[in-house]
Amino acid sequence: DTFFRGQGKLAGKRVLVTAGGTIERIDPVRYITNDSSGKMGFALAEAAYRMGADVTLVMGRTSAEPPAGVRTVKVESAAQMLEAVAERFDGADIVIKAAAVADYRPAHAHSQKIKKSGEKPVLELERTIDILETLGRSKRRQFLIGFAAETEQVERYAMDKLKRKNCDLVVANDVSAEGAGFNGDTNIVQIYGPEGLIESLPLMSKRETAGRILSVAAERLASAAA
Ligand code: CTP
Ligand code: CA
Asked: Region entry Phosphopantothenate--cysteine ligase: which residue ranges (predicted)?
């Protein structure tokens, strides 16, 4: 195992992966989250490990067990995920943002359980910080991979995210397609680079998908270093 890792395409590289959904607290017993299972991020962490990388996995709420061999850091909110990632960003060669980060959080986190009152209470929300965009602004040599979960106009939105967040790759998936997206063990993704579509992968296991994504990343990293 150690022998093969030492020969791997990512031997000696440090890879930082985020996976799972974030949790934004409303009160001590309630929160807002999403359908992310964490499986795509776990598959990426595992693939990076198999390819020889030193892997740190920052994980939110997930519905599976993280792979063996990788360092795990558990977080809840988008704010905590940003802190965990920012701390480790300088030392990373590849950063993969597979987590489904909440776009909004409750504007007021109540320290006590909220009692019911009234018929139509309103939950006020505020924007969270965009972690990937923040990293994109401060990146130097880091190779940055973002995800784009879409239900329509996949190419347009994926390229828009790649540019806006200063990513080197964006992995887009049409989460409304059969066999793609959140909970299953398969996915159907397109890999975009600054020049546009690089590869459109057929339906395959998240494990195989992860291997293809990391192969593209490893090749581009190697040619950037050459
Ligand atoms: N992302 C992030 N921080 C956020 C929101 C998103 O780092 N607060 C990252 C995700 O991890 C993913 C990428 O940005 O890698 C795209 O996430 P997505 O939800 O598809 O895009 P958004 O920019 O949030 O746009 P929208 O949800 O409106 O499509
Ligand atoms: Ca979003």
From this structure: 15-226
